[in-house]
Amino acid sequence: MLKVNVTLYKNTQSAREIKKTCFRKIICIFLCDVHTRRLFVTVKRCRCLVDIADAITTIIYVLKPTCLAASKLGTSHAVDLFLTSRTIIFGNSVFIVCSTTNTSFLTLTRRWSKQNDNITLCVDGHCGKSEKYTESETENSTYTLEIHNFNETDVNMVYACSFGSNNSLSNSVNVFLNEDHFEYHPNKSEISKKADRLDGFLNIEIVLKKVFPIPFCEFKYNDMNLSTAIKTISWNNGIFDSVQMLLNDHYIGFSSGSLNVTCRVGKTKISIMSENFSESKQSIKRTSRTDGTEMKKLIISLAVGNSVLVMIIIILFVNVSLQNKPVIIGQTAHISCLYLSNSSNPIKGISWYVKEGKNLIPIVHNGLSNEKSKYKETDGENNSIRVLNILKFSGKDVNKNYSCEIGLDEGWLYLDLNEKDYVCKLAAKCYENIV
Fold first, then answer.
1. In terms of Cα–Cα distance, which of 103, 199, 180, 98 is closest to 143?
2. SS3 (DSSP) at 47
3. Contact between residue 295 and residue 284 where contact means Cβ atoms under 8 Å apart
4. For the segment 329-373, what is each residue's pLDDT rounded down to a tens digit?
5. The domain spanning residue 392 has which CATH number?
């Protein structure tokens, strides 16, 4: 091993021969002293050990910069390491700067590594994966590691910059995921969005399949801010989040307008949706009974004294929909019954039914229920909406038909169990409720 080291550093020793000779004499004297067990000896008495002294001198002289640097430093913090940006955006490049004021380090091997996996990334500017990592010297004694296309495999790691073969002169920086300094912006394929307006009522569903941190979003239709009416639910998606935002049957009228949705992800504001709506008119008839729609006449007879006043109220349609999708299992589900008629007054005598198999079971009539702990009817946002509240919603309440009947008209809604509309936070309890 001594011969190998001498050969390896042979070219670097000729310029320092004088200093090496001094080291050789010191080593030789030390070896002779140990050999003869005398306190004072001369170099002439040590000729037999000169070869060994030369080899050891070479090793010490080569390692001298490291020894001197370590003795001067006493700590690894002479190597400064820091990130150039306080905000890291996934998909962009990340830069880590390594610098030192000690010029004696510059003759040593320089190495970048991931300490978690003990993986060497670059050595003296040469990187094993050049498409992923590159090193540049920005100025004297300052080196920058660029991590291209920063992704999930690059975060929650400890990056180190070191000098010397034993990495004793080094410093490290923690690159750990947190909501203050990291952002993941969803790309187009990770955004699902749809919006429609029917008879003046706006419905919006937006799903951000991958985002970090959870965004704050603003929904605006012309000058109308709809943000407070948005129902938002989020869940973990690996180290990131998924977010669903819903707006159900929110009345905005028939005039033309523009819908704009923007979200602030961390410190960055991004546009999620922009859609224009032309002026529309109220539809007269829905075509499908499965939509819970049909035009019929409700004839109400009012007794006035001895005479009978026949009042014809035209029900344009009845629409039944799940109001708070997705429903959290164990909480309250809200089913809305929207009807349009030629009367501006609220209509009495609304009945709610649930169909189990072939049986049609009444659950609420004119606001009254025999199962008050389970079903409750409340007012909606306007006189044309009634809401059925199913308390402590469970798996037993799905895979059933629910109907809202007004006189001779009715609307149906089938609640089928699916991952999109229902969320269970306690899997064990949900399973018990379903089975």
1. 98
2. helix
3. yes
4. 888 999 988 877 655 556 667 888 888 776 788 888 888 888 888
5. 2.60.40.10
